[in-house]
Amino acid sequence: MSVAAFLPALPWAVPFLAFARLADRKPALAAVPPADPHSHRVSVVIPARNEAATIETVVRSALASAHADFEVIVVDDRSTDETASIVTRLAAHDARLRLVHGAELPAGWYGKPWACVQGWRAATGDVLLFTDADTRHEPMLLPHALGALDAGRGDLITVNPHQRCVTFWERVIMPQVWLLLGVRYHPAAVSRARRSRDVIANGQFILLRRSTYEEIGTHAAVREEVAEDLALAQVVHSRGQRVWFAFATELMETRMYHDLPHIIEGWSKNLYMGGRRSFPDEPLLAALVPLALGGAMAYWLLPLVALVLLLAGVVSSAMLTPVLAAIGVSLLFWALVSAGMRIPPWYAVAYPLGALALLYIVVRSTWRGATRIEWKGRSYGAEQAEAGRRLR
After folding, report:
1. Please, are residues 281 and 287 in contact by the beta-carbon 8 Å criterion?
2. Interior CA angle at 296 toward 292 and 302, to 5°?
3. Which of 139, 93, 114, 104 is nearest to 47 (CA)?
4. Window from 57-71, 141-155, 370-384 with minimum mean pLDDT
5. Which of 105, 90, 98 is closest to 49 using CA atoms?
6. pTM surpassing 0.90?
7. What is the average pLDDT across 361-386?
8. DSSP strands (E only) in 77-161
9. Which of 186, 189, 196, 193 is nearest to 216 (CA)?
10. Most buried among 12, 139, 172, 347, using CB within 10 Å?
11. Which DSSP string corresponds to 318-343?
């Protein structure tokens, strides 16, 4: 069999070029010397809405920090579950923990920015750490992050944690998303970015001085943004300050979503609006984001579609060799991506399901746009987006 017979499969080998970028695990937060444990008073702010399943884990891990001087503030964003009572129980045994009962959501605000602002108002620290309820921190996470801040690595320190995937759908969909994010926003590239469109922050961990936070206008500056972490990083960069993004997979882990409905709702909220926000001053590129995302998923599905058409007699049998080669190369690629995320490599056989599910999410997210966003029991409609625009 000639080499030429495999040439139609060559495009599916191109993604392997991304491994040169993805394999680069620098900058690494653990490589930064930790700060003096008494160097700063840190306020750890945890916005929480209906987080009863995870809030105790993140609170206990934050309280176990090796840093000496800190407080943990949980802002209960009007939860309808046991979030507040769990925090109240934990606070009774540790004076460093406080519960803030969130006020009613104002017009023009999304829930998380509003909760973060309320946490800032209650905070007493000269350094603020905003972190999410679905995270778990190692004791040295905060000391290393403070070390990076003190060393002048950036004015906003953010990290890439280990993404823990447990269920089937997490293990087949999350690699698809993480690949896109890893290529678009590699920490090394973000840390040296010259344009605001090329920076991002991970809302699961945002550390900055209180003075910096207040200078940029707090989360009020991004109150109308669904992807408030991305927008906040862009605001920081646009003010001439630096975002430093580092790998922290040994110091922090997160599990964003626990089942298929949760994954669909979460990424439906973020993909379209976050994708458009990634090109804030380039409307044409922003408009093309849904096509680019959908095209990326269709790319992985095309060899499977060709195989079905071939078996149905619609496509010439001469294409069998390149079609099978493209599928085989894709399987190897996703096995390596899965292994890099600490997912058993055999989940690669389900990569078409992951691509199909994410294609559905892209279509769903685009269809809804800014006119229908649902998350944690709240619905945000067109009037919410319009109120946010009026507040600018």
Report:
1. no
2. 130
3. 114
4. 370-384
5. 105
6. yes
7. 72
8. 97-101, 127-131, 135-137, 156-160
9. 196
10. 172
11. GGHHHHHHHHHHHHHHHHHHHHHTT-
At 50-70, the pLDDT tens digits run 999 999 999 999 999 999 999
Answer whether 107's CB lies under 8 Å from 78's CB: no
Q: What is residue 316's three-state secondary structure?
A: coil
The token pair at 362 is 């892209």
Domain ranges within the chain, ordered by starting residue: 3-19+281-391, 24-166+185-256
> How many other CB atoms are there within 10 angstroms of residue 68's CB atom?
13
- Residue 388 is predicted with a pLDDT of 40
How far, in Å, CA of 150 to CA of 70, rounded? 16
Cα angle value 126/129/135 (rounded, 5°): 160
Percentages helix, strand, coil for the chain (3-state, rounded to 5) are 55, 15, 30
Hey, which residues does 71 pair with through a beta bridge?
Answer: 43
Tell me the C-alpha distance between 85 and 127, whole Å.
27
- Using the CB atoms, write b or e for 2-12: b if 16+ within 10 Å: eeeebebbeeb
User: d(Cα 219, Cα 239) in Å, to the nearest integer?
Assistant: 15
Which among 227, 231, 47, 232 has a CA at the least distance from the CA of 122?
Answer: 47
- Dist. CA 219–CA 216, nearest whole Å: 8
Is cis: bond before 47, omega within 30 of 0?
no
Give the Cα separation of 99 and 102 in Å (integer).
9
Find the largest Cα–Cα distance for the chain.
Answer: 74
Give residue 347's identity as a one-letter amino acid code.
Answer: Y
pLDDT digits (tens, 9 = 90+) for 274-301: 998 999 889 899 889 999 999 999 999 9
Question: Is residue 130 a contact partner of residue 56, using CB atoms and an 8 Å limit?
Answer: no
